[in-house]
User: Fold these one by one.
Assistant:
Number 1:
Amino acid sequence: QVEESGGGLVKPGGSLRLSCAVSGLTFSHAWMTWVRQAPGKGLEWVALIKSQAMGTITYGAPVEGRFTISRDDSKNTVYLHMNSLTSEDTAVYYCAHVDTNSGNYFLGQWGQGTLVIVSS
Amino acid sequence: VLTQSPGTLSLSPGERATLSCRSSQSVSSSFLAWYQQTPGRAPRLLIYGASIRATGIPGRFSGSGSGTDFTLTISRLEREDFAVYYCHHYGDSITFGGGTKVEI
């Protein structure tokens, strides 16, 4: 299971931290990603973090340099630290597990999403 | 870039739906998946590896294709299938198509 939290209303230029708690899998090996969806729009990839052993982190172009993804394996939790927020960042933010076990790569489990609204 | 067509598909229950996903460059089928999203809900995995149904997905859903052209087919639409469908590729970055809305 995947469960996001931390969304809310934030002013332009502000910061917010989202959390994603994961259960039911070996978290230390899990690759996790954040995907967002602006109101009435499609899905947009935000960031990916592979296992700590692999150490790979990548970001989508719109958030590079402003957002930071991290993980705490002791808490089975992934975080998304968001800085310099603008109205363009208003969206539902989904956390998802990247399933790679079968040699196929896909987002097998998604959280219910957490809404971030950037507005003055 | 993944381009989905059509943008909207207007069909009736019982009809067949054919959704297209075209990649701007050849991709491995292992990294191509399809998701269904209903209003107010998170996306749900339907197909991975371009043609493998996820656990619990009914047999009326099927995926096919390779290289740059992939297809999601719903053989006989049921009311709960009217939704938005996204294709997705895992690569150097994770990419989604723009979505196809299947409406009644």
Number 2:
Amino acid sequence: QVQLQESGPGLVEPSETLSLTCTVSGGSISGSYWSWIRQPPGKGLEWIGYIYSSGSTKYTNYNPSLKSRVTISVDPSKNQLSLGLSSVTAADTAVYYCARATPHSKFYLDSWGQGTLVSVSS
Amino acid sequence: DIQMTQSPSSVSASIGDTVTITCQASQDISSWLAWYQHKKGKAPQLLIYAASSSQSGAPSRFSGSGSGTEFTLTITSLQPEDFATYYCQQANSFPLTFGGGTKVEIK
């Protein structure tokens, strides 16, 4: 059974870049769709974007509301995916989750990490 | 973006009760809908996909129905481990969007 674990700094200063890593175990990162989702305190879930990677094929899809600031990448050699979010503000404070899409549809998320809280503050 | 509206935002129920949660989409999404269970500090769990298909490992007391813009998650014979927050998510198009959540609490 695949397991996902998010990691990264718990505190980021305003205007800086938030960088998180999701380590995947129990399965290969290649050949699946991987998403990042976040949940600000007291608010709902917001999908950030996905990446698909298989061999030399890689493509991404980002939420238009964040597209100008988001980068999602994968490192198959480490079985990890990464999230970068630039020019952060307090509004980016949230629990960030990585998740895998089901084999039959990239729209359903069948495995999630436990999430990591990132606070944006000076 | 497709807006997803859940109701109620919270519900108090007792062990053994049946709980019904509704989700409304801002446009027709056919049966492209998922339901998730989320317990604080834990990874969200996919319960239902394609509006009514049970995810492997999900207890049979969870069922989903609906199509178009109106959907329902029903929990029959509520168990202690079911107290959690439930989210719907449209799977019709990107960006994926979620409902605001329904917290199921112990009465």
